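Q: What residues go here?
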């Protein structure tokens, strides 16, 4: 494999990027100055040094000093600890946060459950979610979990899977499980939803 192919293989792993786009990225980089590419590779290296993963919700956040273990939402004492919004990925959390329609806590599942796959457990944080529910207690006791996945067959499948997995522990802890309402139209990615859509989906959760 030559360098063009090697790099294209890497870009192909990026979300939403196909073979042709991956190649276009490589050609784009070839046309840039050495300084441009140096800056880019430096930023990629620094990314891992300057961000950390939150120990509570698992989102990535920028480290202000090297010691923080929790992100700004999880460490915020004013955030409503009674609700937990479960999303697939960081960008979903960001769009809900930006909408200012929700003031509770979050949990990043880390993926959706593929319909055909049998060994899903290792890829999403279902055990961590169960632990979070079973470990919740006064004064920060959870009362509701809101599942907020994309309205796609895979999103629906994940919704069902998570409901089933957390059913027992939620009952034991008297935590209600709800899902985002159908304000989101089918196929809509949470991260691309506008404020009104999100507001309705939250209001109509069931
Ligand atoms: Zn957090």
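A:
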């Amino acid at each position: 494999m030559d360098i063009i192919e090697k790099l294209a293989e890497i870009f192909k792993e990026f979300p939403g990027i196909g073979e042709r786009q991956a190649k276009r990225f490589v050609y784009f980089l070839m046309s840039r100055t050495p300084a441009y590419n140096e800056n880019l590779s430096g930023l990629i290296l620094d990314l891992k040094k300057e961000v950390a993963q939150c120990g509570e919700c698992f989102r990535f956040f920028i480290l202000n000093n090297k010691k923080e273990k929790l992100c700004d939402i999880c460490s915020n004492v004013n955030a409503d600890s009674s609700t937990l919004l479960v999303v697939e990925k960081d960008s979903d959390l960001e769009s809900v946060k930006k909408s200012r329609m929700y003031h509770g806590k979050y949990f990043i599942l880390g993926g959706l459950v593929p319909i055909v796959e049998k060994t899903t457990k290792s890829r999403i944080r279902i055990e961590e979610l169960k632990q979070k529910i079973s470990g919740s207690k006064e004064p920060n006791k959870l009362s509701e979990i809101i599942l907020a996945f994309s309205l796609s067959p895979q999103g629906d499948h994940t919704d069902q899977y998570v409901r089933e997995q957390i059913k027992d522990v939620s009952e034991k802890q008297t935590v209600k499980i709800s899902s985002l309402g159908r304000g989101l139209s089918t196929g809509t990615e949470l991260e691309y939803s506008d404020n009104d859509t999100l507001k309705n989906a939250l209001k109509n959760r069931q």
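A: Context that may help when evaluating the design: The chain has a mean pLDDT of 89. The radius of gyration is 19 Å.
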